[in-house]
């Protein structure tokens, strides 16, 4: 076997230009597939990172009417049969497999009437949160303080802003200790919060902006859930956010928690709790991008077919050139199996070298395209291994016919060949 490999390299080196041109179809096909697969992998990784964010594994469980979130307001009253979530229910959620923490919150997605002196915060979100919210969602108060037990017990009118809200209302001014108005009620700013792990989704289009950013860019104001009734409604049912132990637990944990919450709903209302299935959204976005890219892979595979035909052609030429050599080997006792193995090995070595060069060229091509267009790239080791193995199979398949022809030559006719 090793002798066959040595002879294969010797033959390839003896006809360097011919061997390279023979490998060219394999190189182009493998390089195209590797670059496409790398782009697919990088795009999927970016989609996953954009959706899951900094890796806090938070799953929102919202009151929903059909597929749309149901936000309680002056125009959307509290539906019949939707209870306020108690601490005992929260503890029940914590007992669900895969749930690390859980938090209850109220929200106004488009809150009006938020002022500081002459500045207005338009279209911001206001959250009434419990003391578990920041830990569950992966936030930390970088400036000032978090909410204290006394803030909840004494119904203090205090708020924490995110960075966007703080910048919009106060520009360069320090917001701590300043008083803002929310629905004509004064609230003192006690802190500014941001995510523990810095993360900004990559936005390449308006569609990406709507998918990953949405309305959060207007800023968020957090107040203690105990103070929610001062600006808004008493006994308003909350939404829930849970922190899953791992990314893989997000879908199942969210679904189980939504089922528990829906078990406490009475009456005939069509409003139910629904978990935002981030992984389902991820799969939908990835599948839509992969559908087109898979077509490109099939198109690129055509060059592999062309490369395989080229291998078959050059191996037939090689057999013709070496008929006398084959006849001599058979005359001194070489078996059909030995001749077959020699030429088949040469075909496999030829296509394997093309596959390896194609892999390197594909990685370089993917990196070049990434730098020029900003497209993310993720090198897929499995695809590399499959590509090299596939190139070897091409050598076996398309080298089989010439190898069989060589093995079946009549030694007398071969020795007489000029």
Question: Short description, anyone?
Answer:
With 418 residues, the chain is an alpha+beta fold. It contains 14 helices and 13 strands.
Describe the overall structure:
By secondary structure, the protein is of the alpha+beta class. Helix content is 54%, strand content 18%. The chain contains 14 helices and 13 strands. The protein has helices spanning 2-14, 16-52, 87-94, 133-137, 149-153, 163-170, 206-212, 228-231, 250-262, 278-321, 323-331, 336-373, 381-407, 411-416; strands at residues 58-65, 68-69, 99-111, 114-116, 119-120, 124-129, 139-144, 158-162, 179-182, 185-195, 220-224, 239-244, 271-275. Strands 1, 2, 3, 4, 5, 6, 7, 8, 9, 10, 11, 12 and 13 form a 13-stranded mixed sheet that branches. Strand 1 (58-65) and strand 2 (68-69) form a beta hairpin. Helix 2 packs antiparallel against helix 10, helix 2 runs antiparallel to helix 13 and helix 12 (336-373) packs antiparallel against helix 13 (381-407). The longest helix has 44 residues, at 278-321. The two termini are 29 Å apart. 37% of the residues are buried. Residues 299-411 form the ABC3 transporter permease C-terminal domain. Belongs to the ABC-4 integral membrane protein family.
């Amino acid at each position: 076997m090793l002798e066959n490999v040595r002879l294969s390299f010797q033959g390839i080196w003896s006809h360097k230009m011919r061997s390279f041109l023979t490998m060219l179809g394999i190189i182009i096909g493998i390089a195209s597939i590797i670059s496409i697969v790398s782009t697919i992998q990088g795009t999927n990784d970016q989609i996953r990172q954009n959706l899951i964010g900094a890796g806090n594994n938070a799953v929102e469980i919202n009151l929903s009417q059909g597929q749309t979130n149901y936000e309680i307001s002056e125009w959307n009253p509290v539906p019949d049969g939707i209870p306020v979530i108690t601490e005992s229910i929260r503890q029940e959620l914590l007992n669900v497999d895969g749930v690390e923490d859980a938090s209850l919150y109220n929200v106004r997605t488009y809150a009006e009437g938020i002022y500081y002196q002459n500045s207005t915060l338009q279209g911001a979100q206001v959250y009434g949160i419990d003391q578990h919210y920041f830990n569950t969602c992966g936030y930390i108060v970088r400036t000032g303080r978090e909410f204290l037990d006394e803030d909840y017990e004494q119904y203090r009118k205090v708020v924490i802003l995110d960075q966007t809200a703080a910048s919009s209302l106060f520009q360069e001014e320090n917001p701590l200790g300043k008083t803002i108005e929310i629905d004509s009620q004064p609230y003192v700013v006690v802190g500014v919060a941001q995510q523990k792990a810095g993360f900004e989704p990559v936005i390449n289009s308006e569609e990406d902006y709507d998918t990953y950013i949405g309305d959060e860019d207007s800023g968020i104001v957090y107040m203690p859930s105990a103070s929610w009734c001062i600006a808004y409604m008493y006994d308003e049912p909350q939404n829930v956010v849970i922190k899953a132990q791992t990314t893989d637990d997000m879908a199942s944990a969210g679904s189980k928690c939504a089922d528990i919450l829906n078990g406490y709903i009475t009456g005939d209302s069509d409003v139910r709790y629904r978990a935002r299935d981030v992984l389902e959204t991820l799969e939908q976005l990835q599948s839509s991008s992969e559908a087109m890219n898979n077509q490109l892979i099939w198109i690129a595979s055509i060059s592999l077919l062309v490369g395989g035909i080229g291998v078959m052609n050059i191996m037939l030429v090689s057999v013709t050139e070496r008929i006398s050599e084959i006849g001599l080997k058979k005359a001194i006792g070489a078996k059909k199996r030995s001749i077959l193995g020699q030429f088949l090995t040469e075909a496999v070595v030829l296509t394997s070298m093309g596959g390896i060069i194609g892999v390197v060229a594909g990685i370089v091509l993917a990196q070049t395209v990434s730098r020029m267009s900003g497209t993310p790239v993720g090198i897929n080791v499995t695809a590399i291994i499959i590509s090299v193995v596939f190139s070897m199979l091409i050598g076996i398949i398309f080298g089989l016919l010439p190898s069989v022809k060589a093995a079946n030559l009549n030694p007398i006719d071969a020795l007489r060949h000029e």
